[in-house]
Amino acid sequence: MPNFTTLMMMCLVMLPMIGNSQSFQDDFTQLDSTQWRIADGWQNGFPFLSRWEGKAVSFGPRGMSIALKSDRKRNENGDRTFYSGEIRSTNYYAYGCYEMDIKPIREPGVVTSFFLFAGPYDKPPGGSGKHNEIDIEFLGSNTNMVQLNFWTDDDAYANSHETLIFLDFDASKAFHRYGIYWGEDFLEWFVDGKSVLKVKNNKFDPLPNAEHSTLRVMANVWATDPEIANWAGLFNQEQKTRLKARYRNFSFQSDQQCE
């Protein structure tokens, strides 16, 4: 018969994976390498036109900047090449309120994002390894709106839930605060502390579940392939302008709703 210690260990193994539950804040004035890492030297492929380089992400007194830049050279097809940046949390997190001040890029074909993510190549300990994602995305063709979305156990990206929220301001002109509340029973998105969309869990169309997979916190900027110009606008590959999105004052409050 197993002793008490053995029984306790067996119970711990059987507990569902719930991720890091520790709340934290970051003003993004400098990189906290215990909480974040920066994508460097690789690319996603279609529909991402730009690759990830660590030098595109910078920190300072006004927060974090993610730039989209041209290499000022051309590939074998004669097209200009571009790089941009991505930051991702070192840990995976579960239910709670995720908030960030963001000033996105206004430029057709450019996406500025803040989102929660896990997938086959970002698999948390004990997680399903399937694609789960909760998004806030700014489409550079019109920053008077923001796109909200989520996927649940969807490696094929087949069942998205895009919702466009029209803002009463141009998001690229100044910082505003954007939030995601991820709970077991519902998802809710916020702009400047005001709820703009709430989606309840539905057994026929479920929300991401922390017992199946916790999620990384991520933010990135990327240029879109011309084949998806009907979504984010057509990116001008001949431009030489340096584009930059800004982020500051990240906050995660575990098991708390956004206010």
From TrEMBL:
Signal peptide: 1-25
Keyword terms, alphabetized: Glycosidase, Hydrolase, Signal
GO molecular function, one term: hydrolase activity, hydrolyzing O-glycosyl compounds
InterPro entries: Beta-glucanase-like, Beta-glucanase/XTH, Beta_glucanase, ConA-like_dom_sf
Domain GH16: from-to ranges: 1-252
Highest taxon listed in the record's lineage: Bacteria
GO biological process: carbohydrate metabolic process
Protein name: Beta-glucanase
